[in-house]
Amino acid sequence: MSQAGWQVDPESGWLVESQTIGFQVRWRLLRLLHHERSPYQDIVVAELDRFGRALFLDRILQVAEMDEFIYHEMLVHVPLAALPAARRVLIIGGGDGGTLREVTRWPDVEEIHLVELDEAVVRVCRQWLPQVGDGAWDDPRLKIHYADGYAFLQEAPAGTYDAILVDCSDPGTPADTLYSETFYRLADRALAPGGFLVQQALSPFIHRDVLAAILRRLAGVFSQSGVYFCPSIAYLIGLQAFVWGSKGTNPAAGPARPAPGGTRWYTPEVHRAAFIVPPALENLQSATSG
Ligand code: SAM
Question: Are 81 and 259 contacting, i.e. CB atoms less than 8 angstroms apart?
Fold first, then answer.
């Protein structure tokens, strides 16, 4: 059966993901739960052996039940714990609800704006991956905007957000503009003094030159910027990188306040350790392809 480029090997029930740099993944498929094509992308939710339920967009894995908490806790609690307070938070992307779930755990957050390009992703994830959002979609502080994140920031009033969390798909997808220097300038303008932006930025090993270019763009806009890491199991990239750009707060200094209880990965020690850059990853910013 071949659906829109999807290869599900009828014999063995493997789901074959699209080619990534240097390797191709075959997932043992237990059940194909949902498949639709939206105006923006191909959306699949599958039950995978070991990894649990998983969301694929345009044949690229986005979230898997087994380890999504590591990524979402590190994307949210590192910036929010580094800030003395955060009243207004903007999430760009994040249609699976995991980032939103972790933001709603902060009692001092008064307003959450989630800007997701594709309404179908939210609808499909609420239906087939309810444990990821875990009820956060009904939080009264939430305002959802179905819009392009770049266009949304072009209209955002200056100095509005304490934190901008960009949980978007990779470069080379509808998220491409969210890795541009102009986008970072728009984010800089929309951030309140001391506020900062954090964005998922692939892997320091497999996507080293892409990450390096992103870091150079950020350094060209923000007075302070850098990278931190966490393990990534389901993305099969070893380490997940998060880049940050700040208007004053340095998250590498460690948490300024405790994160909400009950986290499964994030701790103050994990926060500090995430900024330790081993020699092999030093000078990432100056890396170029080849
Ligand atoms: N954790 C995943 C990763 O690291 O690749 C990202 C998951 S999240 C589901 C990605 C979301 O970004 C998708 O729902 C996608 O529709 C959304 N997205 C992509 N481009 C966007 C844009 N330009 N503006 C807003 N949302 C966008």
Answer: yes
Taking CA atoms only, the protein residue closest to ligand 1 atom 17 is: 93
Residue 11, pLDDT score: 67
- For residue 47, the SS3 value is strand
Asked: is 2-64 a CATH 3.20.20.70 domain? The reply is no
Q: Is residue 114 lining ligand 1, measured as CB closer than 6 Å? A: no
**Segment 272-289, tens digit of pLDDT:** 999 999 999 988 877 655
CATH of 68-289, one of 1.10.10.60, 3.40.50.150, 3.40.50.1980, 3.20.20.140: 3.40.50.150
Q: Decide: 97 in ligand 1 pocket, CB within 6 A.
A: no
Active site residue 167: yes
CB contact at 8 A, 100 and 114: yes
First to last CA, the chain: 37
Segments of the chain assigned to CATH 3.40.50.150: 68-289
The answer to whether the beta carbons of residues 284 and 204 sit under 8 Å apart is yes
